[in-house]
Amino acid sequence: MSNLSVLYDAPGPKAKARNVVYTVLFLVGFAALVWWVLAAMADKGQLDADKWSPFVTDSRVWTTFLLPALGNTLKAAALSIIIALPLGAALGIGRMSDHRWVRLPCAAIIEFFRAIPVLLLMLFASAVYVEFTNINSDMRPLYAVVTGLVLYNASVIAEVVRAGILSLPRGQKDAAQAIGMRKGQMMTQVLLPQSVTLMLPALVSQLVVVVKDTALGGVMLNFDELLRSVRTISANYGANTIAAFTVVALIFIVLNFLLTSAATWLERTIRRGKRTAGAVVTADPHDQMEAQPAAAPAAEAGDPPTPTGKD
Amino acid sequence: MFDFLDLQRYDLFGAFWVTAQLAVFSAIGSLILGTILAGMRVSPVPLMRVFGTGYVNIVRNTPLTVIILFTSLGLFQTLGIAMGGDTFTETNFRLAVLGLTAYTAAFVCEALRSGINTVPVGQAEAARALGLSFTQVLRLVVLPQAFRSVVAPLANVLIALTKNTTVAAAIGVAEAALLMKTMIENEAQVFLIGGIFALGFILLTLPTGLLLGWVSKRVAVKR
Amino acid sequence: MRVRKSATLAASALVLALTATACGSDDSNGGSSDGGDSNDTLTIGIKYDQPGLGLQTADGDFTGFDVDIARYVAAELGVEEDDITWRQAQSPERENMIKNGDVDFIVATYSITDQRKEEVSFAGPYFVAAQDLLMRSGESISSNDEIGDLNLCSVSGSTSAQKIQEDIAPDANLQPYGGYSECLTGLENGAVDALTTDNTILAGYAAQDEHQGKFELAGLDLGPEHYGIGIPKDDTELQEKINAALEKMFEDGAWAEAVEKNLGPAGFEVPDAPEITEGK
């Protein structure tokens, strides 16, 4: 039911009038809410120009505080995803191994780290680094944040990889075996290359999750990232916490929106590519995955591509 | 070995109880809000569709930490919304539930919308042929079927929610992650403490996953 | 072939990333390898977000009372101002930074306590602060008994917060946050009645241009905090040098000038210089 207008009749004159009434009521209610919020903020002096103007008039807010902090956010996110990718691919492929002694540990690792909040992983990593290493205190928050994110995201990526490979038609595997390929050859030359394109959108969406989770390291582990910069900014510009906070939230939203759009664009491009070169893969596995979220094994493996919660 | 587990000083069960409460209240709230949002996204009123889409896109792209901190700094400290709490402890708990609800609802909405997509067109057409209005079509025919087909994705959303309750530590809600932070700072047995809290979360999330997995197979619509 | 290429690419990206971080940590280690008593460079830990004490300004420069103390001591140790490397020393990190040798010494509202002396040593004290309340102008309270009726705000895990909860007013309604500036927003908007911590930190906030006339200190004394300069454990040579530098600073008026300049605007009266107790 992708065309949703099937849920209601084409509006007649009465329904159209009713829709206009709803629209007006909704707008009035929304405007009243916005008005109340702004009035309350103005009342408390939170809309004063000197709290907000630094972000427009003083470029140093950006060069000294916001941009370096954004750089740290991106650095942590990029490092995490780069390290988690090969780890996750290895775990995901390991989970499909024919040998039980490979399959079971991989499955256990994946399920373990998927069940634990990423904040706990970060706190734990930080404590371990304090206790057993002498990484200097400037770098430790970054190490702890990246470690937490890698452990968690590697197991998510493992499931994405597994879903991507499982979604390929069985004939691919059969054909590879028929021409006498070894298991490793089959994986690296037949299955992985085909599933990588299918996995790309899910991986980019995962990057959004990673970027969002770095903020946790800022607040709980004093990692110098974007959200943390609110504190230094508000120490310099007279406790303009609300203003700094709003600006930082907007930066996060814009950044993640760009990443999400990239993921959607990738997905569309890949699907379109499939349709024209349709001979390679008969059934579009990606459509299949989305169309039957309830079909148990495929759906469980296929759930990472549709963003679920914060993970 | 367990002598550091001074339960007088570290209220382990209390902390996990707060975590569980956060998860349950936010789950109820986000299922309700998410369903309303999904309804808005498929409604005949264009403005409501725009609002629903906008809400989901903005909330999904905002870090949960930002949302939780916003409930405290924005709603409470600036707008004075204390959610009827008498002490900061009560207020912070309720604000955390509000923040988690607002965040998770966006994901519930998306899961539900993909569920609506799986309901065959004929169902809605038949319902309309009977003369049902939009809300009746949604309430009596489409949503019941949609819910049954998205139990598994919803289970994932709820498990993610359980894990996300740890973010409430950012505004000082005394839940599991905050206790772990305190314990790790004061005690030496890092691995033991880490293991205990990991086990706690596995005990919270694993049964949810298994139960809802079983439910999803039982209620799946056979087509 | 394409697979192999992308695999190589991924692998080399990984290696690059790892070496990049490795280099990063090498760089930042560089400053501190010289040791405390070297004559050319110093790495000093300070607060970056404490107005009046240690603050990174928009120019990337540093100001505050702790920073002035650190500069004076560095000069006495024969280190030019340009040769000082500033490091952010966040409260929970301070002992680790000294033990790891990330810094030569720390001047960051660092109270001398017996517990800390098990891991690090101190020079000084260079200031005796007192825990106090910061309230909206005109709302001051007169006695400690009234604290229990206030909505308080402090930083989670700080000694000030613990003191309130354990000794002064166990029933008080206390909002913990990650930083003092969050508390300040609540104080400004009326959601909390008072922010409690050392009076130096409070004075630093009250003295800011944007806050002139908005907040004032209650003037209570809820217990002293002796600020010392944190140094590696049992480094008596450095301890003596720093103590001598502090003595000189007390005597030549530079100390009183620094107090007046950084905390004076909040109505903070310059007290007598403290007596140096560490290493004696």
Q: Any descriptors?
A:
heterotrimer; A: 311 residues; MetI-like fold; 13 helices; C: alpha/beta; D-Maltodextrin-Binding Protein, domain 2; 2 domains; 38% helix
Chain-wise SSE layout:
The complex is a heterotrimer of chains A (311), B (223) and C (280).
Chain A (H helix, E strand, L loop, with lengths): L12 H31 L5 H4 L1 H4 L1 H37 L4 H16 L2 H15 L7 H27 L3 H9 L4 H39 L7 H8 L4 H36 L8 H7 L4 H7 L9
Chain B lengths: L11 H30 L4 H15 L3 H15 L9 H31 L2 H9 L4 H16 L1 H14 L11 H11 L3 H30 L4
Helix pairs in contact in B: 1-2, 1-4, 1-7, 1-8, 2-4, 3-4, 4-6, 4-7, 5-6, 7-9, 8-9
Chain C lengths: L1 H29 L11 E5 L2 E2 L3 E3 L5 E2 L1 H12 L7 E5 L5 H7 L4 E2 L7 H4 L3 E16 L14 E5 L3 H10 L4 E5 L2 H10 L4 E5 H8 L8 E3 L6 E8 L4 H16 L2 H10 L17
Parallel strand pairs in C: 1-5, 1-6, 8-9, 8-10
Antiparallel strand pairs in C: 2-3, 3-4, 7-10, 7-11, 7-12
Helix pairs in contact in C: 2-8, 2-9
CATH topology of the largest domain in chain C: D-Maltodextrin-Binding Protein, domain 2
Any idea what the shape of chain C is?
Answer: globular
Q: Which descriptor suits the 3D outline of chain A?
A: flat
- How much strand of chain C? 15-25%
Query: What is the CATH H-level superfamily of chain A?
Result: MetI-like
Number of domains of chain C: 2
Question: Residue share in helices of chain C?
Answer: 25-40%
Termini Cα gap of chain A: 28 Å
- Radius of gyration of chain C (CA) equals 21 Å
Domain count of chain A: the total is 1
User: DSSP helix count of chain C?
Assistant: 9
Q: Please provide the ordered H/E string of secondary-structure elements of chain C.
A: HEEEEHEHEHEEHEHEHEEHH
What is the number of beta strands of chain A?
Answer: 0
Q: Per CATH, which architecture of chain A?
A: Orthogonal Bundle
The chain-level structural class of chain A is mainly alpha
> What ranges of chain C have pLDDT less than 50 throughout 5 or more consecutive residues?
14-38
Find the CATH superfamily of the largest domain in chain C: Periplasmic binding protein-like II
CATH topology of chain A: MetI-like fold
Oligomer: heterotrimer
Number of helices of chain A: 13
Organism (chain C): Streptomyces lonarensis
Domain Solute-binding protein family 3/N-terminal (chain C): 41-266
Family (chain C): Belongs to the bacterial solute-binding protein 3 family.
Protein name (chain C): Glutamate ABC transporter substrate-binding protein
